[in-house]
Specification:
The chain is of the alpha+beta class. It contains 2 helices and 3 strands, in the order E-E-E-H-H. It has one domain. Helix content is 23%, strand content 35%. The protein starts with a strand and ends in a 10-residue tail after the last helix.
């Protein structure tokens, strides 16, 4: 079974927002990894995805977080509630790894 590592690669933030800025775009990445076998026989398969998502922060909101106080986990949560389908992406990456382990096509020429 694949393991997934989500991260925020970068953000774009509004310098004009009160309270020292507001994140308006997050650039996220997820890497999937699965190792089959052990020792010298182990093979590790990888798949990944990258994307961006935009936000419309409300500096007047009670739950507004200034840029300097935002955590990576918090920003990832915003991504997932703003249209990044975590489950769908992880399912797609798992399918990619499954095809690497058991390919259904090959490339080459017959000569």
């Amino acid at each position: 079974m694949a393991t997934f590592k989500w991260s925020i690669q970068n953000t774009d933030y509004d310098l004009q927002a009160p309270n020292t800025g507001a994140i308006v775009t997050a650039h996220w990445r997820v890497n999937a990894e699965e190792t089959v076998g052990t020792g010298d026989e182990a093979v590790t398969y990888f798949a990944g995805s990258y994307g961006t998502v935009s936000f419309t922060p409300d500096p007047e909101s009670a739950d507004y977080t200034p840029f300097s106080d935002v955590t990576e986990d918090q920003c990832l949560g915003w991504c997932w509630i703003s249209g990044v389908d975590k489950s769908e992406i992880e399912t797609s990456l798992s399918a990619n790894i499954a095809l690497q382990k058991n390919p259904t096509q090959a490339s080459g020429v017959p000569w």
